[in-house]
């Protein structure tokens, strides 16, 4: 990638996404766990974008689309 790109997620948004999947409404996420989850999500999305970019490059295409992400997603999920 020529330009510096970084995925950013608001901790509050990540916290709400996590809370949507808790069985007990009283379950809370502490600040350290939320920080870690936000970092993992950032890494995952950045890696997915980079792999999709490399896939598009290997196909000699200038634009990355969903098909490129779909091609790299299975291996990405196995790697994580």
UniProtKB/TrEMBL annotation:
Gene Ontology MF terms in the entry: DNA binding; protein heterodimerization activity
GO terms under cellular component: FANCM-MHF complex; Fanconi anaemia nuclear complex
What name does the UniProt record give this protein?
A: Centromere protein X
According to the UniProt entry, the coiled-coil residues are none
Keyword ATP-binding included in the entry's annotation:
no
Q: Which family does it belong to?
A: Belongs to the CENP-X/MHF2 family.
Ordered alphabetically, the record's keywords are:
DNA damage, DNA repair, DNA-binding, Nucleus
**Organism phylogeny:** Eukaryota, Metazoa, Chordata, Craniata, Vertebrata
Q: Which organism does this record belong to?
A: Petromyzon marinus
Q: Where in the cell is it found?
A: Nucleus
Q: How does this polypeptide assemble, per the annotation? A: Heterodimer with CENPX, sometimes called MHF; this interaction stabilizes both partners. MHF heterodimers can assemble to form tetrameric structures. MHF also coassemble with CENPT-CENPW heterodimers at centromeres to form the tetrameric CENP-T-W-S-X complex. Forms a discrete complex with FANCM and CENPX, called FANCM-MHF; this interaction, probably mediated by direct binding between CENPS and FANCM, leads to synergistic activation of double-stranded DNA binding and strongly stimulates FANCM-mediated DNA remodeling.
- List GO BP terms, alphabetically: DNA repair; kinetochore assembly; replication fork processing; resolution of meiotic recombination intermediates
Which CDD domains does the UniProt record give? HFD_CENP-X
